Amino acid sequence: MSINHIVTPLDSAILDSKEHYVFYHRMVDFAFKELIVAVQREKICDDLEVKLFKQYCDLLLYSIEAMRVKYMYDDEDNMKVDLTDSGLPNYLEFRYLFNDLELRDEYLGKLTPVAELKEEFLDTLLRKKEPIKKSKLFQAASIVYYTSVNKQFIFNRFVQGKILNAPEGDEADLMTSWSFYDVSHNRPFICFMYFNYDGNRVNDYKEEIYEVLKSIADRDMSLDTLAYTIDRKLPKLSPKLIKRIDLGPLHNVFAKDEHQVTHTILESIAKKEIPLESYAFSLKVDEVSSKSEFKEGGFFSKQILQRWDDVFIKKYILAPHRIIQLLYNKTPEIMNGLAKPPIEIAGVEINLKK
Known about the structure:
Layout: E1 12-15, H1 18-41, H2 47-71, E2 79-82, H3 91-102, H4 104-110, H5 114-127, H6 134-148, E3 158-165, E4 174-182, E5 187-197, H7 206-216, H8 223-233, E6 237-251, H9 260-270, E7 280-296, E8 303-308, E9 312-319, H10 321-330, H11 332-336, E10 343-344
Parallel strand pairs: 9-10
Antiparallel strand pairs: 1-2, 3-4, 4-5, 5-6, 6-7, 7-8, 7-9
């Protein structure tokens, strides 16, 4: 199938050809790398946050590359891209990767040995002068997948960062980060929490911190509710600032959501006003900070809690220059509601053989 004839159902796209995989992977890889550069350049995050932001994005890209290798020559199964509110792989694809690698040795034992496969390839190409069968290519891709992909670097549904010292001059002494792939939106979120610790060694309390974050901060929810819950469940912590970054949707030819930005891009692609690889990235940053403290509880069980300010929401759109012009012309109300004018990033050119 030509890449110019991508047809997808309303709720999920199945990548069912080599061209689809190459096209999709190049677009997502390029878009996320542009996103990382823009977040730093536009100071959407500070230096420490940018460093952590990049690490989480690298895990995401590593996982998507692993998916590309896994499905490249697989005739029996296809990778699914969420279309409803994301444009990124369905969250189950990350789970499948993780489960696969749990059984790495078992799968490798069933595959043809590398030396034997190489000999067969050389015989087919040099002596028989025939192309390699797709089933054999799938075996080779599977060997690459199971021997080179590291389970440690797969973007899991919840990824916990370390506890670090907050930047000098910050109101809080410590900070930690985490990321999660929200099941309902099929999008990744990256979070930062700045806090003080009422004790001598925060490492003595880190398991409790990690457990609470994993149990309650692994989904999209009201940020002030999340902040209050964390504060209450961790009495030795005094959270001062929580920031959550919503990565997406990635508006592109694979998306079929209800966003005006997506509809505008799809309509213009259909009319051949813009190329097939046109895209835009939506980004939302929610912040909530403590404005004061109060005591709650009885005489023997008082707990100091934070009184949280209103949640501060900032929305951004990142897109190539041509797409920014298009969105200004067709969705001016969205452009005027952004935290800053649309951020220009580079366009991607994908030329695939028909």
